Amino acid sequence: MSNRPPGHVARSTRGPANRPHAETPRGAPRRTPARTFLRTADGVSIDAVYEPGGTGRDPSDLVFVVAHGFTGDADRPHVRRIAGAFARHGAVVTFSFRGHGASGGRSTVGDREVLDLAAAVAWARGFGHTRVVTVGFSMGGSVVLRHAALYADDDAAGTDAVVSVSSPARWYYRGTAPMRRLHWLVMRPAGRLVGRYGLRTRIHHRDWDPVPLSPVEAVPRIAPRPLLVVHGDRDGYFPLDHPRMLAEAAGDHGELWLEPGMGHAENASGEELLDRIGDWAVARAG
């Protein structure tokens, strides 16, 4: 896995009706929405959206960079709802991981997706924001943990605080029925066809080689940046030993919120929880 800073930002090739203000930041903070394609360090085109938020704060203040879950993308209603909630606390960047939505490439289910997040963070900082919080859900939750560890010394593409919601702690978990179905989707040719045509997600056919740093291995490397781990006690994908492993690995620099009655990821994250996450980010991100 490369931890090089992401490459250049490419102008969108879509028309103005679909991609307003799709231009690269050029130094001065921007207050208007923007949408464009970014270019990752390994050359993948990533669809990204910037919204300045409605807080009235200085544009150099906080920006949330949201990493969606597997089969999501920047235009999915649940991702737009998350973005709207965080816009009450700061600016927001959303993007589609490789293999999802309008982005190029194929999904590696959490491995090279750290390059996508790094490109999005660097783009967010290009708008003049000095404080960045990465917030990830499910697969995106594992990506924000690994990204924070791998880009710990990168001022351009690194983060100032991390929120991981409904993340696995370790790879290859098959202890629940949803995760057994997901492994079939990812590892079988028939499953990848279902992913492509049924879920609009293009999945890479190659196995991980080498196996990437796991989320729980990444967590100790995040310090001293603050970390918030959020997990529902009714999560049908990952039981509570996953967030507890992450919290134990974090030690004093991490917080664990176990949410009563909450299920999995974005669709289970209510407005009250999202507001609490937003308040935490404002208070803790530098």
Describe the structure.
With about 290 residues, this protein is an alpha/beta fold. The protein has a single domain (about 35-175, about 215-285), classed as Alpha/Beta hydrolase fold, catalytic domain (Rossmann fold). The chain is about 30% helix and about 15% strand. The protein contains eight helices and nine strands. The protein has a nine-stranded mixed sheet with strand order 1-2-3-5-4-6-7-8-9, with helices on both faces. Helix 2 (about 115-125) crosses helix 3 and helix 4 packs across helix 5. The longest helix is centred in the middle third of the chain and has 14 residues, at about 115-125. Mean pLDDT is about 90; it is low at about 1-25.
State mean pLDDT (0 to 100 scale): 89
CATH topology: Rossmann fold
Q: How many domain modules? A: 1
Taking the sheet with the most strands, its summary is:
9 strands, mixed
Strand content: 15-25%
